[in-house]
Structures are given as structure tokens and as C-alpha cells.
Here is the input.
Amino acid sequence: MRRSLLSFGLCLLLTLLGYWGNSQTLDRKYASTNGTVNAIAQYGDSVYIGGSFTQVGAGSKQMARFSNGSAKPDVNFPELGSGNTVLITEPDGNGGAYLLGSFNSYNGVSITTTNIIHVLNGGALDPAFGPVVTDYYYYYYYGNSLKKIGNVLYFGGYFTNIQGVSRPYLAALNATTGALLPWTPAVLNSSVTKIEAKDTLVFISGVFSTLDGISQPNSFAVLSANTGKIVKDFPMPNGTVSTMKMEGNSLYTAGDFSTWGQNAQGLAK
Here is the structure.
């Protein structure tokens, strides 16, 4: 009898060790809450929960993808770790996107700390891109910006060097590898929060007030995509530009201005 009990106990112990020794994976198809669950009860096919939460739904960590027409995130799409932050996304033109923020893991796997990652169509992390490292963390109130034009990824934010090279607040990266390009823009005295570009022109706005020591009181400037220098013959607004969008050959802008070469009450093309 004692031998039987000992054998049973040993089998049970080995079973438990085998169970707990295997890593457990969260099933993301089930709902999660935004607060603590204090009680769980099952009745028939229903499970009732109670606690200090206000929402129940599909959980996603710092990143989610929604199919067209769907109100639920794709539970098979990768997640970021809890220590990661996404501030800006920029489409890559092929179904993927560049993410700007602070990243040290992806879908449960540690990665080299970087401020920009490239997520391919389907959710895989692009192994050919990055890492991209700057000297400042990205706070919301300083503003950040990404803009992909061809194989160039323009990058603005509150940094003074990138990849160990001086590039105050604005830089251009190779969109395939993340390598810093030799394009050296006019030196800004503060952050760029919006970037648009077309052909040979790069349009920037932000919280800066000078470029190469030249006053830019309305925090808007046009730079050469070839040299990075200020394009001085482009007409300027008489107030700040809060947003802008390039569509085809037209630049649409809005902001606190009343003229832009001619009367334009807060909106210009």
C-alpha cells in the first residue's frame, strides 16, 4: 500500500513538474480587462467575472492591426513588450510601417534598443533595418515626425545626434537599412514636428525659430532635398503652420496665418 501511494505521489509530482516546466502562452483570442478581476464563476457555457475594471475586450500591447471594416484587432498580429512606446507610424508603401518611439523587444523577443523599427506586411520585424539610435528619448510635447519619400526616411524629433553623428532635430535615413544618409540640413535650434516632401523640396514645421542662425519666426521652412539648405524664394506664411499634407503636386496647409503671398485665412494650397 505504501509503495503504491509512493508511486502515485511520484507520478503526480513528475506530471506537475512537466506542466509547470513548459512555458505557457496567452491565448489572445480571449478577452482581457483593463483592471483587476477579483471573482470568476462558471454557469453552463457562460463565465462571469467581477472586479475593478471598466472595459473588456481583445488585448494588444502597444501595437495592433485592424482589417478593413473590422472593429476587432488581429489577434495573430505581433505585440510589443510592456517597456516599449510607439509615438509615430509611417506607412512604407508595401503594407508595412515604420514605428518611431523606444523599443527593446518585439513579440516577446529581445532586440537591440532602437528608436525606429520597420514592421513588414504580415507583422514580421524587418531584420535588415536598424537599429537607429539617438541621444534623446521621444516625449510627446516635443513633437516627432517621420516621412518616407522613395527610399529616404526623413526623421524629425528632439535629438541632436543620430548614430553618433551630429544632426540637430532633423535627419535622413536609408529607408531599407536605417543607415544615416549624408544629407545635412540647415541647423535648427529646436524640434521638427511635421515633414512633407516632393521632388527636390522638403517642407518642415515645428517649434524651431532659426535655421543656420537665420530667423524663422513662424517655425516653417522649405529645404532643398539635394543640399539641405534653405530655399529662400519660396513664399512664406505670416503665422504658424499647424499641419500640412502633400497630395500629388499640391501642398495643403492649415494654421494660424492670414496671408501666404496673398490672403489665406488659416488655410492654403
User: Anything to note?
Assistant: The two ends are 91 Å apart (CA to CA). Helices lie at 2-21. Residues 2-21 form the longest helix (20 residues). DSSP finds one helix and 20 strands in the chain.
